[in-house]
Amino acid sequence: MQKVKPLKKFGQNYLWDQNIINKIVDEIAPENDDNLIEIGPGLGSLTNKLLERTNTITAVEIDTRVIEILSGKYPGLDLIREDFLQTDLQELYSKKNKLLRITGNIPFNITSSVLFKIIENNNIIKDAVLMLQHEVAQRIAATRGTKEYGILAVLLGYFAEIKLCFKVSPNVFYPKPKVYSAVVHIYIKEIKMDTEEKELFINIVKAAFGHRRKTLKNSLSNSIFKFINFSNSDIDLSLRAEQLKINDFLKLTKFVKNKF
Question: pTM of the full predicted structure?
């Protein structure tokens, strides 16, 4: 591994274990015509193995220190120098007019933002194989009524199927993080929901969990929906958000939509 010190501000923990890297690549199972996007390739440990299986990858890297290294080592790499959270995924989709496949070892400090970006762009994404903090992986796969069940579990439960692939020890990273990680495979469902309704659905879920120990009635009345009377929504407002089915959140979304 070349001597580039991982930066805390980017949440960098370089993955070096070849066994884990091979398992990730096997899970992705890349093909030559894939529209594959790698988030934060770093020094290219995953990139290297992916390029053995597919001819092109678009890699999005924020750290300018490694750009020259990546360009020199991997001439088949389409490199974008920017923050993935600022990347125009629609533009990347349009290049091949093919659904995106996303992968990467995601910094803990931007995990939720990356997952929300995937949800918001669900109509142009096929799947995502991501290395996440193990606790987050458990949260996104959580079931109703558990303490882990929250915003991401509801949203990803609606827009995707989640596969928890395997747990990953801190020992396979440099520097070692303080927690375990996990690889998840997110299979995006084919769901037709326009942008306005999707935004409303996301906001309803966020509002419901805004005060998760309170009843749904109290949470909604302390949110951006405080001026709406939900008494005729056909949802039991004495419940807490963690007790609701995904379909209940969809009912609330349609109820609010019909108010306008």
Answer: 0.92
